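Q: What residues go here?
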């Protein structure tokens, strides 16, 4: 029974994207939309948006690089260890929590290191939950706000960082509840 389910899911997944692609084209043709011209126009608009947000992306990536290479991540982690102990977060997970608002790939790398070092551990479980419970706030603000030209981001950044802090606290609390610690 399980093998049949796996085969059905593999077959469905293999045809999903092509069927969606062809379905969109056919629907457009039925509605008398110039599908190719619309596609090219959308691509041009996407490229224009990319060019508009490129400076913001460069700024975010430079800031992330400086934060990691300078050693500021390690210094900040040391300063925050008492707070981390108070909320019940394993100290190994703090760099993931600090990096997550800045970079999805950077925080994924840090979480992966914890998971490789201690698979099936409480630390790996918390790192996974923290990674999944927060967002890349600075990246989101740079990309989305930059794409529409919003420059006053103070309140949105505060709201995003508060949401990240709440996400981290809830991830730690849920981890303790599920893990039984």
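A:
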């Amino acid at each position: 029974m399980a093998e049949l389910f796996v085969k059905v899911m593999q077959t469905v997944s293999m045809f999903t994207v092509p069927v969606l692609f062809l379905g969109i084209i056919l629907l457009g043709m039925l509605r008398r939309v110039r599908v190719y011209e619309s596609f090219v126009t959308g691509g041009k608009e996407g490229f224009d948006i990319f060019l508009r947000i490129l400076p913001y992306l460069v700024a975010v990536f430079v800031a992330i690089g400086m934060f990691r290479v300078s050693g500021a991540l390690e210094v900040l982690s040391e300063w925050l260890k008492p707070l981390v102990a108070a909320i019940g977060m394993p100290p190994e997970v703090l760099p993931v929590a600090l990096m997550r608002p800045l970079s999805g790939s950077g925080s994924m790398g840090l979480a992966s290191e914890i998971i490789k070092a201690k698979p099936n551990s409480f630390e790996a479980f918390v790192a996974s939950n923290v990674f999944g419970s927060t967002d890349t706030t600075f990246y989101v603000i740079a990309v989305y706000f930059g794409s529409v030209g919003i420059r006053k981001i103070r309140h949105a950044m505060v709201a995003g960082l508060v949401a990240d802090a709440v996400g981290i606290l809830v991830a730690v609390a849920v981890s303790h509840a599920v893990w039984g610690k």
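A: Context that may help when evaluating the design: Residues 48-179 form one domain. The chain has two domains: 1-33, 48-179.
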